[in-house]
Please model this.
Amino acid sequence: MQLKPRVRILGAERHLLAQLVAGRYQAGESIRELAESISRSYGFIHTLLEEAGVELRHRGGDHRPRAKDKPEVSA
Model:
């Protein structure tokens, strides 16, 4: 889907676009991929997803430190 650059998308058209983008995002596409595919900015896509009520994924995967597998020491 290609949109005309610098044209505001409002009303029912915006709602439809938000639902389309939300479905593709929930299917696994990234915000950057979506932005490139419809020639819009990352920020625009991010806003559409928020408007659609989508829970956004965290960036770059899991950054939590992992506990090393250590054998239990009994005293």
Observations:
- The mean pLDDT is 84.
- The helical segments are 11-26, 31-37, 42-51.
